[in-house]
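for the writeup, i need someone to sanity check this before i put it in the appendix. the sequnce is what the collaborator sent (i think, or maybe the updated version? ugh). structure was predicted straight from it, no edits. if anything looks off just tell me and ill rerun, i have time this weekend
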Amino acid sequence: MDIILGAGTLILVLIAMSLFLKFAPYGKKGLQALSGAACATFLLKHF
């Protein structure tokens, strides 16, 4: 059940990101900033 819930959540997030990229005026810049912040956070956390 956890696998189905996780896969469903992943699909919903990917759909939301795709819609954000398509319809937001500065969606690409915003998503690049968010992904950069997430990568920096995870790198600091693991080191």
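Helices lie at 2-23, 27-46. The CA atoms of residues 31 and 37 lie 10 Å apart.
thx in advance!!
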